Amino acid sequence: MPARHVSRVRALYRRILLLHRALPPDLKALGDQYVKDEFRRHKTVGSDEAQRFMQEWEVYAAVLWQQNNENRQNSTEKVCFGAALPEEKLNDFRDEQIGQLQELMQEATKPNRQFSVTESRKPKC
After folding, report:
1. Residue 61 lies in domain
2. Sequence-separated (6 or more) residues with CB below 8 Å from residue 120
3. Cα(107)–Cα(61) distance, rounded to whole angstroms?
4. How far apart are CA 15 and CA 117, in angstroms?
5. Rounded CA separation 117/124 (Å)
6. Residue 60 domain-assigned (yes or no)
7. Which stretches within the chain are classed as H helix?
8. Region 99-125 average pLDDT
9. Which of 24, 43, 95, 99 is deepest in the core (most CB within 10 A)?
10. Per the domain annotation, does 32 fall within a domain?
11. Residues 16-61: pLDDT tens digits?
């Protein structure tokens, strides 16, 4: 992989982890671990898959940045993170990706998460 691509990947990775700092502690821990695993898992993929990977994570970073700003501006309202996943995107997923998505959803909705962190005072949507 050319050096400019590597630096672009690293910059996006760092940007996402910085954006996660605004999340409630339990979501930050879950998100950080997921990002680290996904970036590690995609280190050796082909250029087409790498390009799709980067595009999707860039969209994620842009949405999270926007939600962080909206939450800061509306500090008296309930804090909201996340977005609906359109069915057409789900249809493009491989079986392995569907499995990962199910695992992530189960972990995110567990009453007692595996991460030992204090609960945020900000409610999640």
Report:
1. 1-80
2. 24, 25, 26
3. 21
4. 23
5. 15
6. yes
7. 3-20, 25-41, 47-73, 87-92, 95-108
8. 63
9. 24
10. yes
11. 999 999 998 988 999 999 999 999 999 999 989 999 999 999 999 9
